[in-house]
Amino acid sequence: SLSFFRNKVHRSLIHYDPQPYKALAHTLTKFFDQPATQQQLAALAVEDNNPLVPIFIVGMPRSGTTLAERLLSAHPAVAAQGEIEFFRTAFKSSAPFPFNIMHWKPEDIIALRKKYYQLFTLSSDTAFVINKLPENFWYLGLIPWLFPRAKIIHLTRHPAANCWSLFTKLFTSGQLYSYDWTELVEFYKIYRAITTYWTQYLTSHHPGTLLTLRYEDLVSDYSTVVPAVWDWLGAPPLAAPDFSVAPPIIKTASLMQARNPVSSHYRDAWTHYRPYLAGWLELLADEIAAYDHD
Fold it and tell me: Does pLDDT of 252 surpass 60?
């Protein structure tokens, strides 16, 4: 296949090291499990006086985050703002994330919130604002402490479908792990491990903050699923929602799909290549079993 050849060539031209991702995932689980961390976060608790409800849509790239943003923003009270890079740049300090949290003071939380809200120019009707940056899954344990009203929607997709969609896409930037199947699966396992940890953490410390949404459910029954998500968010019900209008800000690899009518065509595209992927799918066997079990 052209994708295999193209990826082999592209991989030879880039530098990718998985070690920083492995180290960060390990560090986060150890750090947020520490009583001292929870004491510090509790001491930083400051009321958020901005009435906006920040929504963070996260997940692996190509997991349906753009589609979810498009459909949810069909509600007039929900504003789609695309992929807003904030946390990685906002947290730059003398100490790396997450250790810099231990040096914060309540006024730092207030300043970070103000900086975040200033990124948006919204109409007076907007009550919810979406940041759809998939890689924000690294910060899920921190988000509710910064934004007490925040809602997090974690998009998941069948591991084989998600990885195949990544592998067959040539990105303009980022996703350097996606050009070698073994490295791609390795990164996917890291993502699964940290999001599984965050799910348990948020359930314990911030119940009601996180919603896990399957891509397969979204595309097969969006007219039922999306109103249910609006209800979970606290948005008023709509008598006849119009899902035909895409949000104005789409700058991702999913642009064409997001501007087309919702279709399940892409959901099972990988199955056409299953006979040629048997060895590779073995590397994902545990993740596929876990997804099928969930």
Answer: no
Q: In whole angstroms, how large is the CA radius of gyration of the chain?
A: 19
User: Percentage of the chain with pLDDT > 70?
Assistant: 90
- Digit-coded pLDDT (tens) for 199-212: 999 999 999 999 99
8 A C-beta contact, residue 225 and residue 241? no
Separation of alpha carbons 70 and 190, rounded Å: 27
CB atoms within 10 A of CB 149: 15
- For residue 88, the cross-strand partners are none
Q: What is the Cα–Cα distance from 126 to 107, expressed in whole angstroms?
A: 26
Strand partners, 80: 130
Cis peptide before 98 (omega within 30 of 0): yes
Tokens 């753009």 correspond to 66
Global confidence as pTM: 0.91
CA 215 distance to own-chain centroid: 12
Whole-angstrom distance, CA of residue 285 vs CA of residue 199: 22
CB 161 within 8 A of CB 267: yes
CA distance 170 to 14: 13
Tokens 């947020």 — which residue? 32
Mean pLDDT within 240-245: 83
CA separation for the pair 131, 33 (Å, rounded):
27
Burial-class residue 186 by CB neighbours within 10 Å (0-12, 13-18, 19+). Answer: middle
Q: How confident is the model at residue 197 (pLDDT cuts 50, 70, 90)?
A: very high
Using pLDDT thresholds of 50, 70 and 90, give the confidence band for residue 12: confident
Cβ count near 158 (within 10 Å): 22
